[in-house]
Amino acid sequence: IDVPFHSRQLLPGVSAFRSLLEPRFSYASIRRYKERLIGQYIPNVYAKPFSIDRLYIEKVAEVTGSANLYRLLETFETVDDTQKTRTLLIELLAHQFAMPVQWIDTQDYIFSRRSQRIMEMGPSPTLVGMAKK
């Protein structure tokens, strides 16, 4: 199968992928695990640690063009942190297959922090191999 993953050619599929993600991320589960995301998760769409700060969400909205994130920003002051986390996480994941991977910036961030442990989850050590180069 020849699919242009991480290409904007796949943007029309974001909505369908989002609809698959939304029921899998309940408000309760996000409330329970949000602290594991904030400052820890580095999305490949925007190579900075996950944050629910307004500026971070603005930057992700600019990169993705996500209407859902722009709506979140319109109501930012009235939405609780769990809902901000849920909306942002779903939008990042929904867009990741249709956006260029910011791997060099991600590596720069990780290596500049002198990280002690980096975990790669996947079927093969793809990122480890790229990092060694």
Automatic annotation (TrEMBL):
Gene3D superfamilies: 3.90.25.70, 6.10.140.1400
UniProt keyword terms in alphabetical order: Phosphopantetheine, Phosphoprotein, Transferase
Domain of life: Eukaryota
Residue stretches spanning the membrane: none
A molecular function (GO) term: transferase activity
Entry protein name: Malonyl-CoA:ACP transacylase (MAT) domain-containing protein
Record organism: Aplanochytrium stocchinoi
